[in-house]
Design brief:
With 248 residues, the protein is of the alpha/beta class. It has one domain: NAD(P)-binding Rossmann-like Domain (Rossmann fold), CATH 3.40.50.720. The chain is 46% helix and 16% strand. It has 8 helices and 7 strands, in the order βαβαβαβαβααβααβ. A 7-stranded parallel sheet has the order 3-2-1-4-5-6-7, with helices on both faces. Helix 4 packs parallel to helix 6. The longest helix has 29 residues. The radius of gyration is 17 Å and the shape is globular. The structure holds nicotinamide-adenine-dinucleotide. Nicotinamide-adenine-dinucleotide (NAD) binds next to helix 1.
Length: 248
Amino acid sequence: MTTSLRIALVTGGLGGIGRAICRQLAADGAHVIAADLPAEAARLDAFTAGMDGLPVETRALDVGDAQACAAAVADVQARHGRLDILVNAAGITRDATLRKMSAEQWDDVLRVNLDSAFHLCRAAVESMVARGFGRIVNISSVSGQTGNFGQANYAAAKAGLHGLTMSLAREVAAKGVTVNSISPGYVETPMTAAMPPEVLARTVASVPVGRVGQPDDIARAVVFLTADEAGYITGINLPVNGGLLMGF
Ligand code: NAD
């Protein structure tokens, strides 16, 4: 099935990976709504300038707010007639070893990284099913596959995201809606900018491809999974990690 213009909602759209996803989806022919926490004018201007006139609009959304998630999806559907593609890319880290992790650090990470996907998927999927087309991509992490020192909250959220992906994929597969996860390895973004140089060097040394990932590496996978032609790929976790973790 080919239609003229897909409508895509990308959460965390102003972030390092989100921005690349917005840009590549728009370049591929979608109209994109980049949803992110309220940002100051300078950040929004820089974002818009970086889109080079591609059809990408911005919208304030706190994905940690269940009602706001439902309202955002309803708003997109009302203004554009539908929502074809949902990419859950908003994410935060609040690292600490489990023994030192506060309940607040746990709750914050689970709410923003995992609960948000539940709320947005639930808001979006009904009309996708009714229309017989939808593409959902949840941005997980290699940390969810292996666990990571100091990231019990983040790894649990990201592993949970894939459980959600597989279950929803089964529920809507017969209705033309696909649901997949992508698990990036280490990607150069504001989230990883604070890594100490020696940790970064160790990380690069452990990546067979020999470099950290770039946001465009992840966006490429999103475009692949959300294509009209990708209807036979559902319930998968697509690792994009430079070979850091191989398996089958
Ligand atoms: P980033 O910090 O650059 O972007 C994250 C974006 O999410 C930011 O723009 C931030 O404002 C937004 N955000 C945070 N809380 C939000 C909320 N409550 N509501 C709406 N938006 C919110 O980080 P990134 O590296 O681009 O991460 C994007 C996604 O990729 C995240 O889900 C992250 O967990 C995942 N990921 C990143 C890496 C990496 O190495 N950078 C690796 C694996 C997975």
